[in-house]
Amino acid sequence: MKLLRPLICLAACLYALTASAQWQWVDKDGRKVFSDMPPPADIPDKNIVKRPGSRGPGSFPSAASAPAEPASAATPAGVDKALSEKKKQADAAEAAKRKAQEDRNAQMRAENCARAQQAKAGVDAGGRMTRINERGEREFMDESAIAAESQRLQGLIDENCR
After folding, report:
1. What are residue 55's phi and psi, to 5 degrees?
2. What tens digit of pLDDT does each residue of 100-137 get?
3. In contact, 38 and 66? CB cutoff 8 Å
4. In the list 49, 61, 72, 102, which could disulfide-bond 24, CB 3.0-4.6 Å?
5. Domain containing 138: what range?
6. Residue 140 CA to its chain's centroid (Å)
7. What own/partner pairs with CB < 8 Å and gap ≥ 24 does 128-132 have?
8. CA separation for the pair 152, 104 (Å, rounded)
9. Predicted pLDDT at 101
10. How many domains are contained in the chain?
């Protein structure tokens, strides 16, 4: 009975060693990849950092002698399909948001253009023009003020009516 307990502990420790069988290699993008499966056949032997049961490249069989997976199941090492799909969706959402903002800006420019053209037509028609000063009083505009307003409106037209 006293011998059984140490044997069980030893067996558990030995079993845990098999779980640490892990491959390490550097993929074609320069990222370190950790896996319990051997690297794909396109990874050169010099890029394999660690093999199961050794401290570095050793005498274990290379990935070429490992059983090949079907081509349909093969995915690039270190790439998560769900993560890449989420990234694509986020990029598409960002592009749609940017497009909507550009459309709103274009609509605002068109409205500003129409208002500026209408105001410029009123200024160019002549006649007496008034404006409200800072005290809330109405005052008539002289010729220089009308010319300045016409130039300001022309600048708005040039900016918004492209």
Report:
1. -90, -15
2. 999 999 999 999 999 999 999 988 888 888 889 999 99
3. yes
4. 49
5. 81-160
6. 56
7. none
8. 24
9. 95
10. 1
